[in-house]
């Protein structure tokens, strides 16, 4: 029976092979229109992986066309498969008055379209949520079944992590009012962690490397912080100097301090958004760039060395996956703690 560490190593090695498969096909070169070999374009490979799409390419030749849901004043609501945009040889073509250019859908007449399609990232959001529901439903059943006993199975794996989030993140940074924030903190921690891990699978979506996803998570943190703010939290923003000097003396200072305090409310979630987006996207770009070197230089030596470096980086990304989930949860708890802190 394989040890867990050996299984992970084999799994990541296979993941890299599958990830490289599209590059092997492109680098191998089909014939172009002029009979010349196609040149390998690393930017095409990288952008294809990190960007969102109306098509989910599991691996080269295995494609799932996702549903397109668009609304416009001219045509109303339309729902159809993205397969309609592709011809017999996978060339992009117009369909029913719509055109798709680099996965951006518009009307042939030039009109604006409101696109609410189930794209690759949206699909993996659903997959991530489904995994959370299945895993923690099993953990909840384990708690009921093993009440008063030592945890077993999946419960024994996740319980130490849940306790860590509760004691070392929530309680330490929020204080005695931490319990009401626990559902969000646990959800965001595991949602980001599982999403990061899904993004490392071959053919998967770069979900947590999409700025729309990180923006939404950051906005939720901002809303919870603002609605949880106590009187002392708002007084600190309105009157940060307190009673240290009379109002007449500090009015001039407040011309500077008030804009800083107000901007500070929004820079905190902004930093959450950018940090998660940048770290996850950078990791994917680095791994794909290392893999691309073999096809750029067409060298077996560089290919072997690049594969080794990519394997190491992929292993490092396993750590980054949980680290970024921890950082986002920790900073969210810190902001909640500032909002509910008692007056000193």
TrEMBL record:
<keyword id="KW-0066">ATP synthesis</keyword>
<comment type="function">
    <text>Key component of the proton channel; it plays a direct role in the translocation of protons across the membrane.</text>
</comment>
<keyword id="KW-0375">Hydrogen ion transport</keyword>
<feature type="transmembrane region" description="Helical">
    <location>
        <begin position="316"/>
        <end position="336"/>
    </location>
</feature>
<feature type="transmembrane region" description="Helical">
    <location>
        <begin position="247"/>
        <end position="266"/>
    </location>
</feature>
<feature type="transmembrane region" description="Helical">
    <location>
        <begin position="207"/>
        <end position="227"/>
    </location>
</feature>
<feature type="transmembrane region" description="Helical">
    <location>
        <begin position="122"/>
        <end position="143"/>
    </location>
</feature>
<keyword id="KW-0472">Membrane</keyword>
<dbReference type="GO" id="GO:0045259">
    <property type="term" value="C:proton-transporting ATP synthase complex"/>
</dbReference>
<keyword id="KW-1133">Transmembrane helix</keyword>
<dbReference type="GO" id="GO:0005886">
    <property type="term" value="C:plasma membrane"/>
</dbReference>
<comment type="similarity">
    <text>Belongs to the ATPase A chain family.</text>
</comment>
<dbReference type="InterPro" id="IPR045083">
    <property type="entry name" value="ATP_synth_F0_asu_bact/mt"/>
</dbReference>
<protein>
    <recommendedName>
        <fullName>ATP synthase subunit a</fullName>
    </recommendedName>
</protein>
<dbReference type="InterPro" id="IPR035908">
    <property type="entry name" value="F0_ATP_A_sf"/>
</dbReference>
<keyword id="KW-0812">Transmembrane</keyword>
<keyword id="KW-0138">CF(0)</keyword>
<dbReference type="Pfam" id="PF00119">
    <property type="entry name" value="ATP-synt_A"/>
</dbReference>
<keyword id="KW-0813">Transport</keyword>
<dbReference type="GO" id="GO:0046933">
    <property type="term" value="F:proton-transporting ATP synthase activity, rotational mechanism"/>
</dbReference>
<feature type="transmembrane region" description="Helical">
    <location>
        <begin position="286"/>
        <end position="309"/>
    </location>
</feature>
<dbReference type="InterPro" id="IPR000568">
    <property type="entry name" value="ATP_synth_F0_asu"/>
</dbReference>
<keyword id="KW-1003">Cell membrane</keyword>
<keyword id="KW-0406">Ion transport</keyword>
<feature type="transmembrane region" description="Helical">
    <location>
        <begin position="181"/>
        <end position="201"/>
    </location>
</feature>
């Amino acid at each position: 029976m394989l040890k867990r560490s050996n299984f992970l190593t084999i799994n990541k090695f296979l993941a890299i092979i599958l990830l490289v498969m599209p590059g092997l096909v492109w680098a191998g070169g089909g014939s172009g229109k002029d009979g010349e070999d196609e040149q390998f374009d690393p930017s095409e490979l990288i952008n294809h992986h990190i960007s969102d799409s109306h098509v989910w390419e599991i691996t080269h030749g295995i494609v799932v066309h996702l549903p397109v849901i668009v609304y416009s004043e001219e045509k109303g609501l339309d729902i159809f498969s993205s397969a309609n945009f592709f011809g017999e040889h996978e060339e992009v073509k117009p369909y029913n008055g719509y055109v798709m250019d680099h996965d951006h859908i518009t009307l042939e007449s030039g009109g604006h379209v409101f696109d609410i399609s189930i794209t690759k990232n949206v699909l993996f959001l659903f997959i991530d949520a489904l995994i959370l529901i299945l895993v923690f439903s099993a953990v909840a059943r384990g708690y009921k079944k093993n009440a008063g006993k030592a945890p077993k199975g999946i419960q024994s794996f996740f319980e130490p992590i849940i306790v860590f989030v509760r004691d070392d993140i929530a309680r330490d940074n929020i204080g005695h009012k931490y319990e009401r924030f626990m559902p969000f903190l646990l959800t965001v921690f595991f949602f980001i962690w599982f999403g990061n891990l899904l993004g490392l699978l071959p053919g998967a979506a770069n979900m947590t490397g999409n700025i729309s996803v990180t923006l939404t998570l950051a906005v939720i943190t901002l809303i919870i912080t603002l609605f949880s703010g106590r009187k002392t939290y708002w007084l600190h923003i309105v009157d940060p100097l307190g009673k240290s000097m009379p109002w007449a003396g500090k009015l001039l200072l407040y011309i500077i301090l008030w804009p800083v305090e107000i901007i500070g409310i929004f820079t905190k979630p902004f930093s959450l958004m950018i940090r998660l987006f940048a770290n996850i996207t950078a990791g994917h770009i680095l791994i794909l760039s290392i893999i691309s070197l073999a096809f750029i230089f067409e060298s077996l030596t560089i290919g072997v060395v690049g594969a080794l470096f990519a394997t190491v980086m992929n292993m490092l990304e396993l750590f980054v996956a949980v680290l970024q989930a921890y950082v986002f949860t920790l900073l969210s708890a810190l902001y909640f703690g500032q909002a509910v802190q008692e007056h000193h």
